[in-house]
Amino acid sequence: MKTQILKFQWLLILVAGLFITSCSDSTDTGDDASAEAYAEEVVTRTLEGANLGKAGCYELVFPVTLSFPDATTAEIASVEALKEALKTWRKENPRVRTRPSLAFPYSVINDGGEVILVENETQQRELRVACGKEFGGHDRDKHKSCFKINFPFSVMLPDSTVITLNAKEDRKVLHDAIKAFKAANPGVKVKPEVVFPISVTMEDGTVVTVNTKEELKALKESCK
After folding, report:
1. Concatenated DSSP letters of 79-90
2. DSSP structure string for the chain
């Protein structure tokens, strides 16, 4: 009789173990729907943080670096790529509450062709406030980029120094040059500007040549 009871107890333990393992396996990875919703939310919060994209005043200068809570990073070449990276990460890390975020520094461009280096959260907040408008309401279609500037392009510093970016690897050269200029000229409010003409890729994949500040402003306005 004792032998039968022991066998029954072991059977219960085995079944319980299998149940716990099954539950653990089912929660270690997220489903597509929840990962999709999570990615949409984080993209929206990311763009809203500095008033970026269709609904904001600025466009990211890609590529940017996405920093994950586990200290790993990924190079991101577009807003759509940002969403996909977030979706993949969330499916693999459904229980992590800390959100991935853009790594500093990163650059943005406004509709006047000014290139602005964002080095910390304070500057990011200042950028959002300087935009002076609400971020796109609840229309999620606006939570996308208007355009992406294409390589090669050049940026002129206020002292007339021209930095040419031929590929994504030159991004750090631009950041370092802007930092050095700001450090050497703390009172100067004039920002670096792109050298026209520039080539940009629209959200639908169309490549457009922009010849002047006025054309850039009109292009940005058309995305609203």
Report:
1. HHHHHHHHHHHH
2. -HHHHHHHHHHHHHHHHHHHHHHHHHHHS--HHHHHHHHHHHHHHHHHHTTBSTTSSEEE-S-EEEE-TTS-EEEE-SHHHHHHHHHHHHHH-TT--SPPEEPSPEEEEETTSBEEEE-SHHHHHHHHHHH-S---TT-GGGSS-SEEEPSSEEEE-TTS-EEEE-SGGGHHHHHHHHHHHHHH-TT--PPPEEPSSEEEEETTS-EEEE-SHHHHHHHHHHT-
This prediction has a pTM of: 0.83
pLDDT in tens, 11-46: 444 444 444 444 444 445 668 999 999 999 999 999
> Both tokens of residue 222?
């058309």
